[in-house]
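Q: What residues go here?
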């Protein structure tokens, strides 16, 4: 029987400026609290898959109030503090359902 420890979702970067065909972005990660280092293990697995698929880097974001411990444990580098942002515009009004404040961008280069 296979136990689900958590889930991680990765795909093309949300930002068109980072979508270069060589970058994979982790957009969601969730692990049951009982599994120590579960997040780090999932990020490690994503990195190995990204490498096998020919990607050159993996990126992800954390909220400024998050510690980034799992990112550091997975050898990601803190790249920068992102700008606040919303997808809402005058020509296409949208309701933000996600945090729109500043976030940290983390990057891990492949090979």
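A:
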């Amino acid at each position: 029987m296979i136990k689900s420890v958590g889930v991680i979702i990765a795909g093309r970067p949300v930002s068109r400026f980072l979508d270069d065909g060589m970058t994979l972005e982790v957009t969601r990660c969730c692990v049951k609290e009982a599994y120590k280092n579960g997040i780090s293990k999932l990020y490690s697995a994503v990195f190995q898959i990204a490498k096998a698929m020919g990607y050159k880097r993996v990126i992800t974001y954390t909220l400024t109030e998050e510690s980034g411990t799992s990112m550091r444990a997975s050898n990601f580098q803190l790249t920068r503090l992102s700008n606040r942002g919303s997808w809402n515009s005058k020509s296409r009004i949208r309701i933000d359902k996600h945090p729109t404040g500043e976030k940290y961008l983390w990057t891990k280069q492949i090979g």
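A: Context that may help when evaluating the design: The mean pLDDT is 89. Strands lie at 6-11, 23-31, 57-63, 77-81, 103-109.
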